[in-house]
## 1
Amino acid sequence: MATIVLKKKKLTFLENLYIFEIFKGLMITLRHLLKNIVAPSKMMTFEYPEQKKPIDHIHRSEHRLMLREDNSIRCTACMLCATACPALCIHIEAAEGDIPEKEKYPQKFTIDLLRCVYCGYCVEACPCDAIRMDTGKLVSSAYGREDFIKDINYLKNNHPTGKSPISQGIY
């Protein structure tokens, strides 16, 4: 097997100084600067506290539990969301229901937001549309780890403005 030896082209003195490449880079930077000065609405940066970045409607944010028309939690404690969760951050304790339509309900329902990876598998796994991730709330800050463990009362009342807490699900 023969090998082919490629000879490198010898650079001239001006090419070794990289003056033309530096000038090209400066021209690209100047072009972007002028574009941002002429049309600031098309800039990619946001002045955060004054100007918030718009959130897409498909963005997965904090969890919320959906309610029925009688303001009871839609969750039937089937444990599918806790089983589907890859981070194991959902913990449910089931209790027996009083009415025959609702055999079980979650007595305790907690989500550890520090462990959650916001994948949305819990929403996809839920057969009765009991959990959603459409609040629009980004991860908040807190002083202690226990503040990131959200219980059933928080999740039941964590509804964004303009969205109904009542689910139009199957049952």
## 2
Amino acid sequence: MTQISDTPEAVRTFLDAEQSRAVLLASRPFTEARDAVAAWQIGSTLVLFLLMLGFASWMGPSPYLLLLAPFGAGFFMRIFVFQHDLGHRSAFRSARVNDVLGTLLSLITSIPFEPWRTEHHWHHNHQGRLSKRGVDNMNSPMTLDEIPERPAEARYRIKKVRPLNIFLLGAHSLLIERRVPRGFFPFRESFKDAVHNREAMLRAIAWTLPAHLALHALVVLTLGWWVSVLVLVPSLVLGAGTGGVLFWIQHNFEHTYYAEDEEWHKANTAVYGSSYLKLGGVLRWFTADIGLHHVHHLNPRIPNYNLERARRAIPELAAVEPLSDEDLRRSFTHLFWDRDARRMRPAQGKLDG
């Protein structure tokens, strides 16, 4: 792996095929699931979540309950990351246990398990491929050379990509669009790959929302309407919007990775094309280490509780620098892929006139 200086003129180089295979091989020991750890993570989180709801019930209807929304959002994000791990069948040794628990947690998050898992697997297998742009709109950048051909689209992209907009679009995508089949990649016209579990996805979409609403009804009946209206709903919206921002910065940053099919390697999508967001203890707990996204993308069978060990042990991952404040800012300004320099750029005057 060649290290380069970070100058505008420098052309980045990436792992070759042999290096990619070696890094992937090095990740395998960390895929070992530990059932007791996973059970403790999920069980203790649900207990704490229920304790928060019980406290809100005891408090009674009060606008001060809205102060619990950030904590509730954190719980929803943590539970969603568990659902995500279960979708990869990485948390427990048993595939059936992963599937059953993932389905049950989806009733809390309201995100259908089977269609989310299906499109997420596609994301892992195709992220960073320039030829696959247009399916996953969040990770489909225009290139610099496309700006003169499609200036209106470029201007729209510049106008739309703002932190608040990404927050709102993320919440809308997760909580509204994904109530119907077209909210998921495999049901869109732009999706050309074969789909083998269409009926299972449709069933999950059909019953997840009613089951989620039934849980809300149970909360209203047992804990009080204010727990649902003043705690759960704001928490879900805040968590979904924050999740949307996290999704964005996981792959949209200046020194990310895209390649044509003949040059694309999965390990490069991880080491170069997935970010390392270093969070403090509380935020790291609420996000279940999803900030170590470069480790997760190298091998999605690594459960969240093994990600940090893998990061420290694999030199290519340990060498990845966490995103700085400036990197985060540029995630929303450097929106166009420079094929020559192999990095994201701002429009660079290509829209002048």
## 3
Amino acid sequence: MVPAVGGARAATTNCIIIRAAVCFVSIILDFDVKLCGGSMDSTDSRLSAEGLSELAQQVEASLAESTEQIRNINDDIHVLSINAKIEAARAGNHGTGFGVVADHIRTLVARTNAVTEQMESHVRRLMGDLAAMSAQLGVEVRGQRFQQVAFNTIDIIDRNLYERSCDVRWWATDASLVDALVHRTTDTAESASRRLGVILDSYTVYFDLVLADSSGVVVANGRPGRYRSLGSDVSQQPWFRRALATKSGDEFAEQSVHRSELAGNEEVLAYAATVREDGQVNGTVLGVLGILFRWRDLADGAASRAVQSILDTE
């Protein structure tokens, strides 16, 4: 009866080996198929970098538990085979069959141990590869997310700045600005200033709007009570000179981020367009409208949203 017990335990050992191997191989194949098939994305919780790492840990823990069970069973089988050998010796010729079976059981135990060690070695190597794959996947997924956030931030800023170029070309055709440069009276200057102030009430992204004649002297601004730029000479400002060089009212000029005395030495991004006779695109140049954009508000806001977007996905 002893050999029968040993055989049952040996069968159990083999079943454990097979189950562990099949489980591991199926997991690896499933991951490989999805990865190579292109169906994996950063939102797949099971195949995310974190999910893959957790999966590897679970497989390793399961393997350790299975191999420990195998060793325990093998120890029991080994003891049973020794007992069977002893009983066979006591039985003399009648125990010869028991001795043969006991020897086979001991051989099976040795083979099972060898298979177990080989499986552990292979699986540990695969676990190392899986861990490396998980780390690389984590880098790639985060990199793709950072790239997406960067592109989105650039797009927001680009569209915002394009709107500024539209604003300055449109406002430069306003009749009150044309009158202020043609008639050059206190009334027309004040009318232009009030008109610029009304625009600023609706467009809070600007520090101020300034109107200069063709020689570069500021004749009106939208916030005279806050920024005393009236009479200032802007003829050497890049935005003014570049605007004068444009060929039509369809074009605009700009000056990159700088501190401007026209806005209390705040950081501004300046856009400019020519004010032309009768507000016509190809009319005679009368002066230049400059708009002083609150660059820091846009930049800081975009950067803050980008950082928060990244943190929300971590």
